[in-house]
Amino acid sequence: MASQMVIWEVKDGIGTITLNRPEKRNAINGELLEGIQKAFSELSVNLEARVILLQGAGSAFSAGIDFTFLANVAGDDGRAPGIRLREGIDAIHSVLNKIERIEKPVVAKIHGFCGGLGLELALAADFRIAEESATLGVPEIFLGLIPDCGGTTRLTRLLGPAWAKELIMTGDMIPAKRAYEIGLVNQIFPEATLKEKTGAFLEKLRQRPSLALGLAKRAIDLGFGLDRMTHMEIESYVQSLLITAKDFPETLQTGFATLLKKK
Questions:
Q1: Which residues are marked as active site?
Q2: How far apart are CA 124 and CA 120, in angstroms?
Q3: Do 199 and 231 sit in the same domain of this protein?
Q4: pTM for the complete prediction?
Q5: Helix or strand holding residue 113 (H, E)
Q6: Residue 92's domain spans which residues?
Q7: Fewer CB under 10 Å: which end of the chain, C or N?
Q8: Is residue 1 situated within a structural domain?
């Protein structure tokens, strides 16, 4: 367990991280960020945890940044204007980048409100599965700000410039169905089946070879945006690591047996 604000556990090969600040709709402050970082650090080296679920307790996935925390980070500490804020943003980037780089699949289960930094947190995951009644967006523009922890970067990489601009420049919160249509979330389900369907997806990932999962994730993320030949070089190196892995013959045999059953 990382902290009271962030609860984590491992069961049946699945690591579950729960944002546990329901009275504040899981608004993100320094303690919660530290808890997230600690939980992902622990699960990254936990051999039992083959896939990771990220979720929020209470009525929302996350309402975004805690404004008291924001005021503290943005406050004047006697240095040149903006230095303290930039250091604070860098610290948040470090946490989200850790989630993105962990060599295990990360699935964000989204319900209720998921806005601002809350959505940027979900964007660091590999997959987003949402409840049909959830709403998602980056409303920072109403405050004269921009989403600065992956909003302009991960949103653009995921959706392309046009949709990223619409979400960021209007600040609109959109329903889960629309988020699914534009590719912001992978799947949507009714509240009654969200837990079951998310669990089934996690189980599917858990059954896949873990080394291949982790390196496939890294190959996709590292190669995206690079020229085609460089990306193909990354594929080649990754494949050479997988084929020469000690347990590859066993993995290959098991995989063939699984594929034959599906025919």
A1: 120, 140
A2: 7
A3: no
A4: 0.94
A5: strand 113-115
A6: 6-206
A7: C
A8: no
